[in-house]
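From the methods appendix. Each design record in this collection lists the tokenized structure first, followed by the designed amino acid sequence. Records were kept in a plain field format so they could be parsed without special tools. The example shown here is representative of the layout used throughout.

RECORD:
FOLD TOKENS (290 positions):
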């Protein structure tokens, strides 16, 4: 029987810096701004949509949807457009904000905090954490959502999930740790080939000096994380924030009592899990079984 969760939805406290995730209107706003700038630079360059599309490899309909703020342009397109239209970096400067529009509304604030974190600690017992997912695994996860997402939404969310992994390229790179339930590593989401690639990815990232991966084995008789997954995020200012999500309902918590409870829980989970070295050896064992 699962233990009850300690977390409740807390109203933001004055001066505490807790921001609610921006609504759909905020995301559509940046897309409209980007679209207007894109059209302005295209017109200045004397290019019609068909010509511009041929130079960037996108259809006229897709270019129109970007200019009208109806679709989220991928980073690759933004880089191409800035170069082709000689925009001087104006379009590229909006890339980060545009990328956030790809996230579902409930995750946008957490994505911003994650991108700026100096420490990230993640407990996962349902799926491989997004920061570790391969493209194939992420596509399988989004493809299994019910009610189902349309193909464009799946593509956009996959791009957004992979964009989050740019955190590994930051300098200095944040310190990260992951405690992953063994059931997650055995569940063949997307098929055995997808799982094999995913386990290889975990091994690759797990060998980074700034990352520690631990496995919570199924044979363990003690488990402090039965209430579900969560993340702990530490900012450059030394603030510790907790993020909890279930069934597309998320909470970003800054209230110290609630965050402290999850800090204690995460410490116990790490003590109950295999050590980082033993965990990587165990992932190699699971790979050998596929």
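DESIGN:
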């Amino acid at each position: 029987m699962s233990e009850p969760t300690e977390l409740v939805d807390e109203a933001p406290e004055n001066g505490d810096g807790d921001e609610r995730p921006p609504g759909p209107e905020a995301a559509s706003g940046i897309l409209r701004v980007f679209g207007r700038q894109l059209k302005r630079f295209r017109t200045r360059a004397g290019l019609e949509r068909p010509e511009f599309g041929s130079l960037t490899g996108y259809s006229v309909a897709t270019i129109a949807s970007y200019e009208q703020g109806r679709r989220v342009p991928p980073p690759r397109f933004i880089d191409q457009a800035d170069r082709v239209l000689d925009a001087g970096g104006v379009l590229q400067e909006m890339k980060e904000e545009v990328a956030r529009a790809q996230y579902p509304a409930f995750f946008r604030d957490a994505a911003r905090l994650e991108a700026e974190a100096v420490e990230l600690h993640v407990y996962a017992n349902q799926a491989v954490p997004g920061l570790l997912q391969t493209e194939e695994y992420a596509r399988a996860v989004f493809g299994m959502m019910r009610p189902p997402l349309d193909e464009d939404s799946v593509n956009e969310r996959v791009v957004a999930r992979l964009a989050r992994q740019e955190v590994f390229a930051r300098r200095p790179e944040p310190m990260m740790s992951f405690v992953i339930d063994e059931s997650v590593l055995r569940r063949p989401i997307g098929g055995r080939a997808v799982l094999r690639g995913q386990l290889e990815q975990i091994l690759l990232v797990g060998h980074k000096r700034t990352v520690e991966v631990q496995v919570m084995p199924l044979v363990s008789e003690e488990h402090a994380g039965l209430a579900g997954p969560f993340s702990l995020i530490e900012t450059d200012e030394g603030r510790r924030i907790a993020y909890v999500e279930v069934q597309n309902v998320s909470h970003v918590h800054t209230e110290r009592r609630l965050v402290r409870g999850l800090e204690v829980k995460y410490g116990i989970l790490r003590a109950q899990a295999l050590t980082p070295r033993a965990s990587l050896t165990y992932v190699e064992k699971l790979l050998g079984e596929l």
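APPENDIX NOTE: Residues 1-26 have pLDDT under 50 and may be disordered.
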